[in-house]
Structure formats: C-alpha cells, structure tokens
Here is the input.
Amino acid sequence: MAEPKIPVVILGAGGFAVMVHEMLSARQDVLVLGSTDKALGLSERSVGEGVNLRILGDDEIVPELAEQHPGLRAVIALGPDLMDVRARLIRMLDRAGIEPIRAVHPRAAVSSLAGLGAGTVVSAGAVVSAGSQVDRHCVITIGASIDHDARLGANVFVGQGARIASYAELHDNVVVEMGASVNSRVSIGEGARVTGGAFVNTDIPDHAVVVGSPARVVRYLE
Here is the structure.
C-alpha cells in the first residue's frame, strides 16, 4: 500500500510560487493542494499566461485547510518586497502549529554537512556549502551561493547570483539583492537590506540600507 502524500499549501500565487510549485510537484511524497492569494486569484500574475496555480483562497484560509488536511505543511513563496508579509505569515503558521516544508531544486547543490531550516527555498544553481547554517523560511534564489560556515538567520532572502562568503553572519529578515556580495566574517544586522550589486566589507547595523562598493549606509528602514 502506497504511503499517503504530504499535503502542502503554497502561500503566494505569483511567479515565485510557480517555481516553488514546480519543485514540490516533482516530489513523489508531496501533494500540492494549491496556493493562497490575497487577491483571491484576481491579481494579474496569478491568472497570467503560463501560470497554472489553483487558488484556494486568501491567507486566512490556511488554518481551515489544516483542519481539512491533517499533517498539512506550508511554504512561503513571496519575494523580498514583501518581507513584512513573510514575517506575518511565519507568525501565523507558528500560531496554527503548521509545519513548514523545504523546497529544494534538484539542480541546487546543498552540502550534506550544511543545516537547512524548515520552510527554506533553494532555487536552481544555488550552492549551500558545508558547515553553513540556514535558519527557517529563508530563500536562496537562482545562482546564489552560501560559502562554508556562513550563518543565515530566519526569513533571510538572498537574491539571484548574490554571494555570501565564509563565516559571514546575516541576522533575521535580511535581504541581499541580486548580484550583491557579503565578505567573509561580516555581520549584517537584523532587517537590513543590501541593494543589488553592493559589496559589503564591514559590519552593517540593524535595519540599514546599503549601496555601492564598498557598501555604505544611505538610510534606515522603519
């Protein structure tokens, strides 16, 4: 008798959610129920050409889905411009006791000696090296790399082609945008944002936005 599949809901219904759907649908042990969408499927991206996601309702339906589908797991598929929403959804999942599920592309290279938190998404071409520790609900997108012994807190978003060097530490809710680099042993404070193409060679305080090479603080997020 076949083992029952793990029911999964994807929180989000845009292009990123389509990528996550593709990763999870390739797994024989997973049944993707569909996605939640704050616009209830009416947003442009959720009904656009080539996007085939079943919209189950808005985010508030998730606890109800958990009652209908015992063992429900969830993954957040929202981008770096919605970090506050991502954090809110993490709190909702925790309150509801819904366990997150990882989504790792088969063409990602994740070391067996790395720690990868529940709910983390790792896209094609990404590298997570030995000794690195990635906390819950992180996103490591296409072609990004996490070198050995780096540390990522919870809900960290690493953009396309970004580079996190060895022994770097990124605290919770950090965004490293496309093509940015964080040098070895540098610490990035909670909620900070490293803009695209920046090179960070010194520690960055909490909630700072940095630009340039070498990176400099230009403002602070509220």
